[in-house]
Amino acid sequence: MAFRTIAGLVSLTAMSWANVALADDITANTADAVAAAEEAADDADDDQQRRTQDGDEIVVTAASLEETLPQELSRYGYKVEVIEEETIRNRGYIDIAQALDMEVPGLTVLSQAGPFSYANISLQGSRNSDVLWTIDGVRIGNRLYNSTSPADTLPAAMVQQVEVLKGGHGLFYGTQALAGVINLVTHRFDDETSGDFTVGTSTNVGYRAEGRVNLAVGDHRFMVWGVKDQGEGFAIFDKYNDTVTDRERSYDVLSAGIKYGYEFTPDLSVLLHYMRTWADLDNQSVSAQNVNMRDQQIAIGRIDFTPSEAAKLYLKTYYHQWDTDYGPAGRATAYWGFKDFGVNALAQLKLHPGLEYHIGYEYQTYKGRDEVLLIDGQSEQVHAFFGQIRTSDDFSDRLRLAAGLRHNEQSDSSSTVWNASGSFVLSPALQLDASVGTSFLLPDAEQLYGIDTCCTHGNPNLKPEESFAINLGASGRIGGFRWSLAGWDRKIENLIASSTIGAPEGFNSIFVNVPGQVKARGFEALVAAQLPAGFDAMVTYTYSEEIARNTNTQIQGRPKHSGKAALNWSPEDAPYGASLTAKYFGRTENTLTGLGLREWGDFIVADLSAHSFLDDDQRWRATVRLENVFDQDAARGLSSALINGERSLVRRLGAPRTFYLTISHSFGAR
Q1: Is the dihedral of CA 123, 129, 132, 134 positive or negative?
Q2: 46: left (phi > 0), else alpha (psi -120 to 50), else beta?
């Protein structure tokens, strides 16, 4: 029976179209999204009053002020997208980059080497360094190199939802949130014992296993989770030197965590979470096969306290350690890594009708060291104070306004940023949103402390980069159609770059703040529709103009045109569904050493997926996914390299056509 069901799934995939579910899968900043955010906020308030009584035992589930922050920001003029766990499961994504790549409008993600690899991302015309990555609000971006994404150690199975906050968010999130924030929300507690496990395989000789168990003992909540992903991968370049015999870029990732929560009273609770990731990740070039042997640890502690209806606050501390040994497989000896410790506190005060006050403090210290590119082991400390004033629900049920200020004190420099935003619902068919303000990017460890003679010398006197951005949007719903149009204009000051002037002896250059601006402007349009027979569809188009400093030329490697389209089939009350998602990456170009200007891009990649429950109780689920349906082999990047002594053009390839199959089982409470 199970075999026939799986076979049916494969044939269903071949004949079905799919997409991003309209209301459940992606929460855009439309009129309906505002209503959903209001409902979520109301639910959070209701949670403070909700009781499940069993004899003398009282169980209370409360929403944290930190957890509701993205939804709250969506009510005040910011565009927020959400990928739910159900979407990730139904479409068979194995790492976060895959989910972001196909599901989030306006976000471009190019994985450098397939699953569990670094990724080049662009959000509203950003560089990698302009987007902050967080897990449960804890920054996980690489503090040695801001331009290095953390996507290589993020299994999709570890999250309950992914929140993408678009626009500048330096006020609440601090450094690196110039163009947006990607926040991974790990699984929340259940009030009853429950869990699930999954096994899977792929045609790239990949295997995976994951499991999660929730326990509820009185007012105590426990969760244990683990994910194992391993694969031989594929050849990521179209050319290699003859000396490279193993040309498949492999990965081996194990992530595990334990989570504990306890409520001392209905108004006071504590949460502790520890997670650890071990990973052996091939770092392949056209002439060598090296490996990053990663050991990453994150520990989080948070206290939530609601002393009265007029006050709500949380206090959080975290520790993030990233250790990597780099070199040839089996004998990697060069170390690179960092340690990041921080404290964050935020209070929400409702002192009188019409206004809310949000007041916060953040402390961060980090230290980075690299024996590969030689970064001196020094540390930096940052203190930040921030606050925001918002209109509350009793001010107006159609107009919401907010304004705030953040001041940072770091080693030998300081920065102050501000923002203001608002949302006005004219009718269900039209909502207007706007935000304006500044954000900042602190220099990373390489820019501050780099001492490798091969490269640019660090400068501990660097000022943070600062951006000024305006975001405008309109959205609404007409019948079964949803639409949104959002535009942005951002300018970056104090750009950090290398300069030959003032370089120390033995170095060709030094990092400096240079005059001039980098400009990014563009717009994103989306249309979605609910169709008959259980179908829904979405089409989105993004135009992004990214102008290099002191020029009128598009930054190389960044297309002006991109888009996504999807169709989803999910019949009401049916135990199955199917999807087709597709993305377009426009034409771009790069200047290569010895080869001149070369064009690349201008390709479409499509994925098919389907899922079905295998039993009447809907405990067993099968999911299939066909990545890169048309086996598109267009380059995801170009480089110039010496191949057997000759200068050659090398294309970086995306994943070939790959088939994934997973089987999962859930138990306990639903």
Answers
A1: positive
A2: alpha
The pair of structure tokens assigned to 463 is 């000022």
Listed in order, strand segments (DSSP E) in 285-374 are 289-308, 311-328, 334-352, 355-370
420 phi/psi in degrees, rounded to 5: -145, 145
Q: What does the alpha-carbon distance between residue 117 and residue 122 come to, in Å, rounded to a whole number?
A: 16
Residue 125 amino acid letter: G
DSSP string, 205-220: TEEEEEEEEEEEETTE
Contacts of 603 (CB under 8 A, 6+ apart): 584, 585, 632, 634
The CA angle 401-107-562, to the nearest 5 degrees, is 120
Coil/strand/helix, residue 423: strand
β-sheet bridge partners, residue 382:
364, 410
pLDDT digit string (tens) for 489-514? Answer: 999 888 888 888 989 998 989 999 88
Q: pLDDT for 2-36, tens place per residue? A: 333 334 433 433 333 333 333 333 333 334 443 44
At 616, which amino acid appears? D
- pLDDT-derived band at 650 (thresholds 50, 70, 90) equals very high
Name the pairing type of β-strands 159-166 and 576-592.
Answer: unpaired
Write down the pTM of the prediction: 0.88
516's tokens: 């001039």
